[in-house]
Amino acid sequence: MASRGSAHEGFLRHANGRWCKVAILVSGLAIAVYALTDATPRPNGGTFAGYLLGSLAALLVLWLTMLGLRKRIITRGPYSLKAWTSAHVWLGLSLIVIATLHTGFQIGWNVHGLAYALMMVVILSGLYGVYAYANLPAQLGANRHEATQPQMLEAIRALDRQLDTAAQPLGHEDAATVRLSLEQCRVGGSLRQRLTGRQPGCGNRRARDAIAARVDVQRRQGKPDPALTQLLFLLERKDAALEQVRRHIAIKTRLELWLHIHVPATFALLAALTAHVLSVFLYW
Amino acid sequence: MAEHYRIAIIGSGPAGLSAAAHAATLGLSHVLIEKTGHLSDTISRYQKGKHVMATPSQLVLRADIAFEAGKREAVLGAWETAAARAGVNVRYHAEVIAIMGTGEPIAGSLQQVVTRRRDGGSDRRELQRCAPPYRLMLANGDSLVADAVILAIGTQGNPNLMTCPGSDNANVQYQLDDPAAYNDEHIFVIGGGDAGIENALGLAADAAQRNVVTLVNRSAEFSTAKDANVTALMAARDAGRISIMTGTTTRSIGPGWLVLDTGEGEVRARCDRIIARMGSAPPRGFVESCGVAFASSDRLAFPPLSAVFESTAPGIFVVGALAGYPLIKHCINQGYDVVEFINGNRALKPADEPLLEARLAGLPGRHGVDYWLEMLRSNITILNGMSPLQMREFMLDSAVRSYRAGDVIFARNAPGSSLFGIASGEVLVEVDPADTSITVPIPAGSIVGEVGLISGRPRGATIRAGSDCIVVEISRTAALKLMSAVPAAAREVARITTERSLLQIFKSGLTPADLTDVIASAKVETVRAGETIIREGEVGDDIFIIRSGSMVVEKAIGGKTIFLNYVPAGSHVGEMAVIDGGRRSATVRAAVKSEVVRLEGEAFRALLANRPGLATRLREEMASRTALNRFIESRKDSFGGVVEMYTGIANFLVDNGIGEATDVLLIDEKLCVGCDNCEKACADSHDGLSRLDREAGRTYAHLHVPTSCRHCEHPHCMADCPPNAIRRGPAGEVTIDDTCIGCGNCQRGCPYGVIRMDSVPPRKPWLIGWLLFGQGPGPGEPDSAWRYEHARKRPEKPKKAIKCDMCAGQSGGPACVRACPTGAAIRVLPEQFLSVALLDRDSG
Ligand SMILES: Cc1cc2nc3c(=O)[nH]c(=O)nc-3n(C[C@H](O)[C@H](O)[C@H](O)COP(=O)(O)OP(=O)(O)OC[C@H]3O[C@@H](n4cnc5c(N)ncnc54)[C@H](O)[C@@H]3O)c2cc1C
Ligand code: HEM
Ligand code: SF4
Ligand code: SF4
Questions:
Q1: Shortest distance, CA A145 to any CA of chain B (angstroms)
Q2: Quick check: B308 and B346 in contact, CB under 8 A?
Q3: DSSP B794
Q4: Mutation for testing the A interface, residue in B566, B671, B828, B832 having most A CBs under 10 Å
Q5: What pLDDT band is residue B828 in, cutting at 50, 70 and 90?
Q6: Could you read off the pLDDT of B673-694 as tens digits, one per residue?
């Protein structure tokens, strides 16, 4: 009962794994070409099979790079970015087979080796990307609790305003503690902080701990100050709100970060590939 | 002795002002009576700087006041000057509260005035109409006399006033122009509808204003407000910006304080300002009490008028929005025309004549507008009760076409919600999709397409012209107006729909004659969302046909309510009990507000006895439904969790409007990486403005319903669009065309908050330039800073309503789905999605 929608598949399984099958087929053919052609003195990029596989690999790399354009240039015609991503991932993986066979397993410390290494960096980062795309979205959704990022940030600003008001009647020292939460508390921060969602020495956490200790003492003495208890409540709510946004940002960062390797490495690869091809034709 | 005028014009909106200006130009004795202290109250209450639009553009303006599109302030300023120059005699701060004839009682001319009470009942009284001249009573006790009265009071009505002691205090106001104008005040907003909530949020939006805002609502729930507003209100309360008092009423008001009646007793509070937003009373009551009748009790009804705008009260003329013409240009023209008519120029052709000529241009023969209007009115049964003026208005929203024998008028499964009236010739309905030669003829005078009109669902059959014929296509809006203006037309449409849907559903060679008894027993009932029409385990054998809306079928299994099926409009439920005589085997309740036709089991059983073929067919259908139920029950035993998840998802989707949707965007949050490429693609394929908010909206079991149009079967947004700019397109999409005047009615009407008002941003430079050199703002909607900077070079475009058009006209289909890299964004048709296939969605 394949109806529109409910039987939908993600990019990996797109069209019943069509591109996975194509990639396996292409890799199989490449192995067959490599095995069946008789390369003398030994297989490398310079034989007929080598040229064939090399051209295929170079074209594939160019086509794989085109995903960046396809993703951004919205045309009116029928295309599906999901199908493109599917083909990108599977054909990208088949490059491992095709390009490795193209080298004839001879990889040295030169511009040719560099191109190969860069390609592997791109592919491995892509592989990590697939892992991230498969595992993180569910966490991202579950953490949101239907709130949008602007709403999460607005909730924190609102708590700040309440904290500010609640701090007015307090003594100098307590007010200074509250200011820690207002002034020394960040959501984003350095890459490391964004990635882990942890902010050691977060002002709000410090203020919360300090006020909690004071409330604790008062409670034990049996005369809790309602203003301070209310303040503690606000600081705890802000802590929870901060936790949520930071987690949100951490997951989003993890979903994007690998692209910051994948894409620059792609450009480096294109440069190395050009050098590789030119040097082969000009100086060999 | 009261002043005596030839013409008294009530209301200084575009219609009244234009009438007064023309009367002044002609040198007629006149007075323009205006309730407020300025001209044109409705327009002066538009938002500051609102771009007033002058549609329809083909309509020529004929008036003594100028009008062209421009800022609200400029339009009003020009009118101010024109009124002074023409020498209009205006009387400000004068509210007319009663109009009565001072002449002889008019024999047999009685006006029924029905007033509705709060408790749901109504009072009825009869009013004897008297001949002109009329005496006009003003609120301040003055009165004046006029030979002819022009009612041009628009449809805004009066805000409901506070009635507690002290409510005439200066700190009580009924409108909020600029929330930013109040600082450091304790403000109470009374009323939990959209207007009240929006005002309260506006006042509390900027903490720097330091207002203490409290919203007071009489009931415990905010049932009349939109979900989006209620959510925002609750968030503001949780953030400590607004206090909410529900189940509370005001007891008394004084300078600087007010006393409230809460559930727990009286509360006295500091209060500098009260903003009362308790809805407004439509002007209908006042108009009726003047002797002007309305066409029906329907909320959409207008007063029936003669060709010269004269109402049922002789000498009282009605023009403008109150006459059913809300566009300013029409209002202005009518103001001019009505004064010409009163002045004796009865031969004047209305200003919309060229528009109608264009509408009727393609028809055979060289006949004029009047010929065609009369021919349609007299030939098509449901139009018989229309007046010539109503026919003109009707034609502005309709299209007449001639077809040659064999032409297709509409095709099976095509979307469409218009009604077709056959003016001459005959059309054929292809009842069997497999064999187009089997047809049922429908003669001239009747209608086709009523199913699309009532249910909003795709056409059930292809209709061809049987002979050369002339057919009028009546837009959904025009059809609804027609049905409220002419009750006989509404009854006729209902009768035809019931008969045809029975024939359609039960096929088996039934003829209309077989159905006479069943139809005689039929009752059309309105069912509220969530209301149950069939309850599991009860005895009952009535059959229900769902005319509009949709139903969910549920069954209690192992102490839990399990979702079995979703039943869209056009289907029937409840026939099992008639056939096997048992108790109801499942519960059926409305997913959204629906209309059903209830057929008595008794009459139906008689029909079954005569037609064994029908019984067999129904039994087959029943078998497949029973099999489905058993399948789900079996799943329930083995995978209880899966079936509960299925029920949960189904209920969640129904709660989020899927029950009235025709096509809805869903996001699988197990696949969505948050790249917002869907939003960017939407903006890039639509003038740089995104029509969807991916992150906002509800989520259940990783299924997310973003803020995006559901293309409702009966779009709420369409209900009140002055230029009729909202239509259903050929692919079923609900779209807004260029004639939008930016009034924001549709935005207020849409319960899902998917319409935004915005102006088209400046064009972005080519994307390649961004990729290579970082030129421009990049893909997606440009941010406001970039827009601001680049808009300065060119005049700002007016704000119009913006919504999803399902990428109509783009061969690739919806850009959001095309541009999603992972396959998370999907568009679904509700009845396919809400099927057992959902069971196979692996539960998260
Ligand atoms: C937000 C908004 C935006 C709109 N934008 C546009 C647009 O851009 N272009 C367009 O063509 N249309 C627009 N419209 C529609 C248009 O403004 C109205 O349909 C039009 O003003 C109706 O004109 P009218 O003369 O019939 O009545 P109104 O303009 O409503 O005028 C009625 C007048 O009568 C007075 N009055 C009422 N009762 C009494 C009484 N008992 N005694 C004395 N005086 C009384 C009122 O104070 C008021 O001044 C918009 C409507 C809204 C709500
Ligand atoms: C040499 C081979 C490859 C090249 C040159 C390449 C290049 C690119 C480029 C240019 C993009 C566009 C990024 C953007 O614009 O946001 C991209 C995206 C991506 N690539 Fe690759 N890639 C390669 C191999 C792979 C492999 C092997 C995988 C997976 C196993 C992979 C997975 C992805 C994924 C998941 C995306 C993100 C798609 C999206 O979010 O739109 N890539 N790649
Ligand atoms: S805009 Fe709102 S009311 Fe109109 S069709 Fe879309 S979801 Fe329905
Ligand atoms: S589309 Fe919306 S904003 Fe535009 S005119 Fe119609 S109701 Fe008003």
A1: 8
A2: yes
A3: S
A4: B671
A5: confident
A6: 999 999 999 999 998 999 999 9
CB B728 within 8 A of CB B734: yes
Task: Report which bound ligand comes closest to the CA of B801.
Answer: 4
**Mean of pLDDT values over B424-428:** 92
Please tell me whether residues A156 and A275 are part of one structural domain: no
Between the alpha carbon of residue B609 and those of residues B541, B605, B614, the distances in Å are 15, 6, 9
Cα–Cα nearest to B334, from B722, B8, B15, B13: B15
Contact A144 B699 (CB under 8 A): yes
> On the CB side of B225, how many CA atoms lie within 13 Å of its CA?
24
Strands of B396-456, DSSP E: 398-403, 408-410, 419-424, 427-430, 439-442, 447-448
Architecture of the domain whose range is B515-640? Sandwich (2.60)
Architecture of the domain delimited by B3-157+282-349: 3-Layer(bba) Sandwich (3.50)
Whether residues A10 and A141 fall in one domain: yes
- What is the number of structural domains in chain A? 2
Euclidean distance between CA atoms B189 and B213, whole angstroms: 7
B287 or B50, greater pLDDT: B287
Which residue has a Cα nearest atom 6 of ligand 4?
A: B721
Domain B354-493 carries which CATH code?
2.60.120.10
B664 alpha carbon – ligand 3 mean position (Å): 10
CB distance A8–B823 less than 8 Å? yes
Q: Are residues A134 and A237 in the same domain?
A: no
pLDDT confidence band for A259 (50 / 70 / 90)? very high
What CATH homologous superfamily does B172-279 map to?
Answer: FAD/NAD(P)-binding domain (3.50.50.60)
Mean pLDDT of chain A: 87
Pick from A210, A132, A190: nearest CA to B821: A132
Ligand 4 geometric centre to CA of B52 (Å): 12
Among the partner-chain residues B670, B696, B815, the one whose CB lies closest to the CB of A74 is: B815
Q: Does A85 touch chain B (CB under 8 A)?
A: yes
A129 and A39 share one domain: yes
CA distance B276 to B280: 11
Name which residue leads in pLDDT, B748 or B837: B748
pLDDT band at A7 (very low <50, low <70, confident <90, very high): very low
Answer whether A10 touches B (CB < 8 Å): yes
B680–A151: do the CB atoms touch at under 8 Å? no
Tell me which of B646, B658, B678, B695 to substitute to probe the interface with A (most A C-beta atoms closer than 10 Å): B695
- The proportion of chain A whose per-residue pLDDT surpasses 70, expressed as a percent, equals 93
**A131 & A12 share domain:** yes
Quote the pLDDT of residue A3: 33
HSE, side-chain direction, 13 A CA sphere, residue B663 = 21
Domain extents in chain B: 3-157+282-349, 172-279, 354-493, 515-640, 651-840
* Mean pLDDT rounded to a whole number for chain B: 86
Whether the CB of B754 sits within 6 Å of ligand 3:
yes
Residue B774 has pLDDT above 80, yes or no: no
pLDDT tens across B545-585, in order?
898 888 989 888 777 888 888 888 888 888 888 877 778 88
The whole-model pTM stands at 0.80
Domain B3-157+282-349 and domain B172-279 have a common topology? yes
State whether residue A81 sits within 8 Å of chain B by CB.
yes
**Testing the interface with A: which of B238, B666, B669, B694 to mutate, by most A Cβ within 10 A?**
B669
Relative orientation angle of helices A81-103 and A14-36, to the nearest 10 degrees: 20
Q: What is the pLDDT of residues B182-233, one digit of tens each?
A: 888 999 999 988 889 989 998 988 878 888 999 999 888 887 777 778 888 8
Expressed in angstroms and rounded, the spacing between residue B711 Cα and the centre of ligand 3 is 5
Q: A3: nearest CA in chain B?
A: B832
Report the alpha-carbon distance of residue B672 to residue B677 in Å, rounded. Answer: 10
Range of the domain at A220: 149-255
What residues of chain B lie within 8 A of the CB of A162, using their CB? 239-240
Whether A163 and A102 map to the same domain: the answer is no
Residues of chain B neighbouring A84 (CB-CB closer than 8 A): 821
* Same-domain status, A138 and A244: no
B239 touches chain A (CB under 8 A): yes
